[in-house]
Design a protein that fits this description.
The complex is a heterodimer.
Chain A lengths: L13 H27 L4 H23 L2 H27 L20 H15 L10
Helix pairs in contact in A: 1-2, 1-4, 2-3, 3-4
Chain B lengths: L1 H17 L6 H23 L4 H25 L3
The chains are: A mainly alpha, B mainly alpha.
Chain lengths: 141, 79
């Protein structure tokens, strides 16, 4: 994985598409939860707060992968881990008890409402962060 | 395609302003305000990646626009 020094590895090649996918989820999740919290928060407060958390996680992951510096990589990795845990926990809980949350979230049923992309994305994200990790001692690989 | 989208945004805005029916206007306006931005941003992001991954970004942008237009139609017809 070599490229122009100015371009961080996390946004090259497959990373290009990954960042784009994360950006789509970041924007759509933010917009959706903002509208829901603003207009109908009392209907399903837990669902909408959860959606807002998911939105922030997607935003952090997007920016982290885009910037791709040493610290932002760690930030992105943390966000993606939260995302993976979130989709697994919320997915499992909502599958076990359909009525647990009053309204759907991105992570309900492992992201079934979004073609399971919310489940696949963190796995790809972690794999990508791992593949583009800097080699020992240098920051170029 | 982008021209058509801009036309749809203008037309959608006028239609929303003149309709007598109840439409979920916040969401509708949100989609209208965003849908025309997807292709330019996608093209800009794909431009410096001259591989199949750049093409993948363009494909994703097109899919995103398709989904957004379908959602706009759903919101307009009240689902």
């Amino acid at each position: 994985m070599t490229g122009p020094v100015s371009e961080p590895a996390t946004r090259q090649g497959p990373g290009r598409l990954l960042v784009a996918a994360y950006a789509v989820f970041a924007v759509s999740a933010s917009a959706r939860s903002a509208v829901q919290i603003a207009t109908q928060f009392t209907v399903a407060p837990v669902s909408y707060l959860l959606s807002a958390v998911a939105a922030v996680v997607y935003l952090v992951a997007t920016v982290g992968l885009m910037v791709g510096g040493a610290r932002t990589r760690r930030l992105a990795t943390a966000a993606i881990l939260v995302e993976l845990v979130g989709v697994l926990v919320v997915g499992t809980l909502t599958v076990l008890d359909d009525d647990l949350l009053a309204d759907q979230t991105v992570w309900s049923g492992y992201g079934v409402g979004y073609g399971f992309v919310p489940l696949v994305l963190p796995v790809l994200g972690l794999a990508w962060v791992w593949r583009t990790r800097p080699g020992p001692g240098d920051g170029t690989r | 395609m982008e021209l058509g989208l801009v036309a749809a945004v203008v037309g959608g805005g006028i239609a929303l302003a003149t309709t007598e029916r109840a439409v979920d206007s916040i969401t509708f306006v949100g989609y209208l305000a965003t849908v025309w931005l997807v292709l330019p941003v996608g093209v800009a992001w794909a431009a410096s990646e001259k591989t199949r991954w750049g093409a993948g970004v363009l494909l994703l942008a097109c899919i995103t626009v398709t989904v957004m237009v379908l959602r706009l139609l759903q919101i307009w017809t009240g689902r």
